[in-house]
Design brief:
4-stranded mixed β-sheet, globular
Length: 83
């Protein structure tokens, strides 16, 4: 576990974490989308997962072989009920 208030993850570090996962689910407000590092462009993924301060958006969870980045209550309920 990493405290995002103390440890900042820039784009290069974020890509190192994300490039080998099978799926990245990005939540923002009421919407969420699935991305795949093998199919989607690096630049497009980083646009979605990086915050305005230039750091990886929080919260960010590694669940199995995928990342969930951002907050959406409905998505969290679905993910954590399935596990």
């Amino acid at each position: 576990m990493v405290d995002a208030r103390k440890v900042r993850i820039d784009a290069a570090s974020a890509w190192c974490l994300l490039k080998n996962v099978s799926k990245i689910t990005v939540a923002k407000g009421q919407k969420f989308m699935d991305l795949a590092p093998q199919l989607d462009k690096k630049e497009d993924i980083l646009k979605k997962v990086m915050g305005p301060s230039g750091n990886l958006r929080a919260p960010a969870f590694l669940i199995g072989d995928g990342f969930v980045i951002g907050f959406n209550a409905d998505l969290y309920e679905k993910l954590f009920k399935e596990k």
